[in-house]
Amino acid sequence: MIKSYVLILFDIISNRKNYNINSEEFYIFKKDYKIPPEDTERLKNLSRSLESYRGNLKFVDYKNAEEACEKLASKILAVYSPKELESFYFMAIPRGGLIVLGMLSYLLNLKQSQFETSDQPDQPVMIVDDIALTGKRISKILSNTQSSHVVIANLYSHPDLRKSILEKEPRVKYCFSAHDLKDQARGNYPDTNDYYSWRKKMNKRMGGRYWIGQVDLVGFAWSEPDYPFWNPVTDKLEDGWRSLPPHKCLKNRSIFGILPDESATKDLQLSSAVIMGCFHDEIWLFQKDTQQIYSLTGVAAEIWRVLVSYGNIESSIPYLMDKYDVEESILRLDLESYVDDLLEIKIFKKRDS
Fold first, then answer.
1. Cα–Cα distance between 199 and 221 in angstroms, integer?
2. Among 123, 121, 119, 122, which Cα is nearest to 89's?
3. 164-211, pLDDT tens digit by residue?
4. Residue 306: CB partners within 8 Å, gap ≥ 6?
């Protein structure tokens, strides 16, 4: 459960050519802050996620992924012989599927020609991805595939999703998965009527899915899947919360649009106890250990993005000086103070050696 909501207001006046921080009112903690209704829904989603999954996320590093690919390859070879696989054209669902297919290509001894564009409508096709949650991306790629013999291969998926795809898509002959995901929805909605009411609402809001559930959280070294949720106040699907810190996940490291400086020594990183949410131009950070939520906007959010991307103050200074009209000495002092505060509230931590 979330015990409290603490909003940090950064008193910053800024634009492209002006930069100013009023150091005396840099942080204002407002415990009586009235949360807007759209923010309340975001907090409810976070709270539900923490209760349902207890804040845990299965992290799949490259070694784990290689082992999962070996298991997936074994399941494929139990049905199709190496000779039969030679006739297949292989497609990857970007972008995680490209990594999985690269590993499978070695394990199944695939040829380069099996990745090139197929001009044979009757050629068997195998569609590969890292994870399938609802089947939306599978549906999209199937609509662009003419083959009458299609096979789906994932590292992670729910059995009911695979069953639904096989029932609704006669062209799909097999759905392979290295590991099964578990659905938490039944536990979250123990009353049968509540469960089916939830399913009906979600099917209406998220059309085009083969199956909808509340599966285990899985994140990869290259990507953390999107877990969008419906915000009834904004009447939109919004991006969900992200549990993997940027230093563990390439996708979460690249979402800020800041090119990395690999020559720099990174001595700062986001704490693994922090869950991140990006809503429009606002960044929310939930510290699981302290049960506090912090909100960053404007220049404060921009500085945070740069610090997370570069991992140190020295590399962040040239980037920010190019963007804002500020003296280096002032900027350095502000960044040092900012980092000290983020370390104190356990948003940042010193990088693991």
1. 31
2. 123
3. 999 999 999 999 999 999 988 887 788 888 888 888 888 777 777 899
4. 258, 316, 319, 320
Report all structural domains of the chain as residue ranges with CATH numbers, in order of start: 7-55+228-350 (no CATH), 62-180 (3.40.50.2020)
Instruction: Tell me the two tokens of residue 114.
Output: 């099996």
Are 145 and 91 contacting, i.e. CB atoms less than 8 angstroms apart? Answer: yes
Cβ(223)–Cβ(253) below 8 Å: no
* DSSP one-letter code for 244: S
Cβ-Cβ contacts under 8 Å for 235 (sequence gap 6 or more): none
DSSP 198-239: HHHHHHHHTTT-S----BPPEEESS------EEETTTTEEE-
Burial environment of residue 25 by CB neighbours within 10 A (0 to 12, 13 to 18, 19 or more): exposed
Which 8-state DSSP code applies to residue 113?
A: G
Q: Which residues contact 183 (CB under 8 A, 6 or more apart)?
A: 158, 160, 213, 214, 215
